[in-house]
Amino acid sequence: MKTYGRLMIFSLVACIAYTLAYYFEWSLFQYYFAENSIGFWEQAGASGPPILWYGWLATAVLAGAAAAAAIPRRWIARLLPDLLWLVPVVLIFAALMYERRWFM
Amino acid sequence: MFTALLLFHGLVSVALLGAITHQAFAVAAKHVETRATSFMARFRSTDPAAYSTAIVVLFAVVILTGAVLYPSYRQVVRPALQTLDLRAANGVFEIKEHLSAIGLILLPAYWASWRQPLAPEYSAVRVGLTWILASMVWWNFIVGQLLVTIKGPV
Lengths: 104, 154
Description:
The structure holds two protein chains of two kinds. Chain A is mainly alpha-helical.
């Protein structure tokens, strides 16, 4: 199972990074669908709003990959297995709380 | 092209829904009944590990096709929902967005937890992640169908 430890670290860290990314709007890039263009900074004169979701996902994947590569193997071995499902449950609850603004 | 891709997205979603529901019920069974007689007992009495790779592939395909379709949603469906002041419909789609992303990110851990030979220390992880993904798939499927229904006459 040690071989797959890095995959588990990737998922765990990327999940947390995704939540932080949409909460703080840390989008690696922005896709302006009306113009079919990608920008790394907000484009003031754009003809429509950007899609941030792709950028949030890219931020999360980058953070997860960096953590999976950098975290030492002995730390991965100490990872509490139950965190792998408990953390996503908490993050899903956080997403539901964040989006409740649509139902008020 | 949009309609063909939406249809493909829907069909793959149905396959994913079937596979993950089957696995979720099978993994939740305390023991496999050797002489399964009822429908539910037969539904559960499969090898849940056999589904994991197929579920990873189907989930990834559904999310990727959904990601390709997403700009069309933003251009056509979302403005219509805003015009009709359907805030809750917008909200459930926003939740679908987050669940899709978190689900996609969880796939490596899910796949790793189902590798053979099954590690006993990851048995709770297997059950937990399978049910999390199954709940996401059901939510996303229902919301997708709901929005297609709303968008129809718009």
